[in-house]
UniProtKB/TrEMBL annotation, chain A:
Superkingdom of origin organism: Bacteria
Record bears the keyword Transmembrane: yes
Transmembrane intervals: 42-61, 82-100, 106-130
Protein name per the record: Membrane protein
Keywords annotated in UniProt: Membrane, Transmembrane, Transmembrane helix
Pfam families according to UniProt: DUF6691 (PF20398)
InterPro entries for this protein: DUF6691
UniProtKB/TrEMBL annotation, chain B:
Coiled coil: none
Localization per Swiss-Prot or TrEMBL: Cell inner membrane
GO cellular component: plasma membrane
Segments traversing the membrane: 6-28, 49-68, 80-99, 111-132
Protein's UniProt name: Membrane protein
Family of the protein in this entry: Belongs to the TsuA/YedE (TC 9.B.102) family.
This protein's UniProt keywords: Cell inner membrane, Cell membrane, Membrane, Transmembrane, Transmembrane helix, Transport
Annotated Pfam families: Sulf_transp
Membrane-topology descriptor: Multi-pass membrane protein
Length: 143, 133
């Protein structure tokens, strides 16, 4: 059951990514690039997703456990720290270069473009390197 | 602003929110695509549901292309720029514990100070690069 629901959740999200055209990096860049013909669509994608998620999350806030798992697993950290800020800057730089964040890039793989495949493989390499060299370790070594 | 597509954006956003909410209600998990995908590859524990989620991501656009006949989208060229961007997105989402879905939707959706901060920062960095280069 967990497997089927996880599949369905991924499916719904990438259907949304496709329908909203966020799967098209040109569409995302038209939002991020304020210097050209600005396209505010991405703001409405986020607004729509946030409205559904925040209301839903508020409605289930007192539930003791999720439907098909033992407990809710929420992040333990609550305050912003250096790795969060540095990571967000690096992610944003990469996002603005091509217009891909992880969801749209993975969703677009089925189109069979070598550019998309190259991006995703480089992204996986980045995940691997970040696991090998946690930013907290690099920061403590530098300071 | 002639390229503005408000209806498609809101409908698509609703689907994204529903998928993310389903994962929280049913499995109690944050729908962070970068975290789920990287752990599907690099962590044995909990691999099956994470792989199923990634398969769902891959199938979604195929389903849409069956339902909407004129569905198409552009893809980037394979270039040094594309590879560097992928590497930065991988490093940044791993070090920063999340991407547009995990921080931008799930995190902000539960009013997490970390996620609100992260989203403002990566949006600003994205706007900076996309507007200048």
């Amino acid at each position: 059951m967990q497997i089927f629901i996880a599949f369905l959740a991924g499916l719904l999200m990438s259907v949304g990514i496709a329908v909203s055209k966020m799967i098209d990096p040109a569409k995302v860049l038209a939002f991020l690039d304020l210097s050209g013909n600005w396209d505010p669509s991405l703001a409405l994608v986020m607004a729509g997703a946030l409205a559904v998620y925040s209301i839903g999350f508020w409605l289930i806030r007192h539930k003791p456990a999720p439907v098909v798992a033992e407990k809710f697993q929420l992040p333990l950290l609550s305050k912003p720290d250096k790795p969060l800020l540095i990571g967000a800057v690096i992610f944003g730089l990469g996002w603005g270069l091509v217009g891909y964040c992880p969801g749209p890039a993975i969703s677009a793989l089925s189109a069979g473009s070598v550019g998309t495949l190259g991006f995703v493989l480089a992204m996986i390499a980045g995940w691997y390197l970040a696991r090998r060299w946690p930013l907290t370790k690099i920061i403590s070594r530098l300071s | 602003m002639d390229n503005f597509t408000p209806i498609a954006a809101l409908v698509g956003g609703t689907f994204i929110g529903l998928g993310a909410l389903l994962l929280m209600v049913a499995l109690g998990r944050v729908a962070g695509i970068s975290g789920i995908s990287s752990l599907a590859i690099f962590q044995r524990e909990g691999r099956s549901w994470r792989l199923a989620f990634v398969v769902g991501l891959l199938v979604g656009p195929l389903a849409v292309s069956v339902l909407i006949s004129d569905f198409s989208f552009s893809t980037p060229e394979l270039s040094l720029r594309t590879v560097i961007a992928g590497l930065l997105v991988g490093l940044g989402t791993a070090w920063g514990s999340g991407c547009t879905s995990g921080h931008g939707i799930c995190g902000i959706g539960r009013f997490s100070a970390r996620s609100i901060t992260a989203t403002l920062v990566f949006m600003a960095a994205g706007v900076f690069v996309a507007s200048l280069f």
